[in-house]
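Because showing beats explaining, we let one protein speak, sequence and backbone structure tokens together, and leave readers to judge.
___
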Amino acid sequence: MPRPLVYGNGQFLIAFDRRHQARDLFWPNVGYPNHLLGHFMRVGVWCDGEFSWCDSDDWDLHQDYEPRTLVGDSVWRCWKLGLEIDVSEAVHPDDPVFTRAFCVRDLRGAARYVRLFFTQNFILGQSDVGNTAFYDPFSDAVITYRGPVVVLATARTLSHGIYEYATGIKGFGGLEGTWRDAEDGALSGNPIAQGSVDSTFSISMELAPQGESVATFVLTIGDRLDRATELLAKYLELGLHTIAEDTRSDTTKWLDACDTPDLSQLSLGVQNLYWQSLLLIRSQIDNGGAVNAANDSDILETNRATYSYCWPRDGALVCMTLARLGKKEYSDRFAMFCNRIMPHDRPFLMQKYRSDGSLGAGWHPWVVDGKPEVPFQEDETALAILALEKCSEPLQSELWKTFGKRAADFLLAHRSKDGLPLPSYDLWEERRGVHFYTVCSVIAALRAASGFSGKSGSKYLDGSIQMVKSAEVAFYDDQLGRYTRMVKPFGESYERDLTPDSAIVGGLLLLQDGELTHGAESVAILASDLTVLSNIGGLARYASDYYFRKTDRFPGNPWVISTMWLARYHARAGDVDKAISLLEWAVIRAEASGVLAEQYHPETGDPLSVSPLTWSHAEFVEAALDVLGAMKR
């Protein structure tokens, strides 16, 4: 299920699914650890002797943000109970505090007595061992803690705080949790529980006929009990409404500071998705420099790992997009992150990392054909050099000495006699060989490295020029009339992988216009081979793509990244109308809140894999900027 609403500030992120359940909560790093890990925080309503969870089919939910903000603006409506609830929610831009304002409204024209129930099913530190939940009468809050993670949750109306509470055991000994206790409209009052625990508390309110009443939920998190309670006290004194106000102000200032061209020539839908994409990208970036691919734990259902990692590939491309808008601070932090994580004994970056800098889970073997080999994707190291090129001075010069030069020297040395890179894994992380996209990224990186080095930079430029010549020979197939995605040296010639792959389009975008001579015809053929000929449309990643495959009728599922690559190529070639039609495709595919997934079902259009995917949003922004650039020419 997608995450149509996410709220984050660089140290704290909370994400909600389509039924408005909080399913992911990260602190003190965006991306790790996840203190919900797919479990839930949910809301229930009791009224007139009836109870309903707001994520049930009793409720119609419309989820959205206020325009150009990460302040939630959603409406929940339940005809069964005759109630409507407006929900406004936000994470503070500086502090790890989340608030939700519930404006509950009667739809029956009768006086009503309503209770709202809030459940917390935390897995603090990604473990259900040794958690404690208790009611704290001093702060009038339910607190859950485990080691250096303390989460405080409470609610207030204008006149009073928590009405009832319960803590208990969940997922152990046959016990489901205190959320079951809520379904009769009353809670047990059990004050403390340890082990695998959850908690539920309620507040009460009275509604006049056609009247409304407001309740505010607040959650804070810290490394000690006193710090979590101090945050609560701080915002109770300031007024909980200041959290959303500060968020509105912060996002407005941040967007206004982006060096964005005039968007008025694009449709309102494209404009809105552009601004929301920037904010969603920002929410996925940790203050320490890691750019998370996606923070959506539902992917655990297919593999006991997630996308809550920083791939240097994604991170570099995303930061290059932000640098294009004048936001070089993200390239700065990312480059410092790369400098920190690069192994001392190997001058290249590994597949992926947690946001705390430790090595992420992987699947590439360290033994190939019976020989030891360190697995890596060479494009990631190359792209990190391109991100370094976007850094501000003097940091750029400093990091070139400690990180960039080591990486560039490795790219230059890690070549075969023909000047092409030696085998590594492709950007899709599936095949080992010499890949068109990797070659393009190394060409661009070596060219960038030559600019860092003054007179001594000629060796990098020479290597880049030689690689262009070799790529033209190795990857172009006369019979197909296009470039191929991968080659393997085979005697005096090359064994080519002829599978149509959108990565070829992505690779061409890294090069200078016309640097490889068969780009236009290659893209035209690939667009024909990979377009999903259904009412959904879009461009598949590659032919016969297995990942989340739903039908054999099409080459694969349409991916946002692939489709935006094609849009960008059309824009750079001057075909603005084709590029705009693909931008509009993304607008149609996005959630009402602007969230884009990785890929979509080719027949139903349902989002597949994870969302929001940070890379998807970055490519959409790049495509919009390329279209605007083409309009000026």
The chain has a mean pLDDT of 96. The domain at 5-254 is CATH 2.70.98.10 (Beta-galactosidase; Chain A, domain 5). The radius of gyration is 26 Å. Residues 147 and 223 are 8 Å apart (CA to CA).
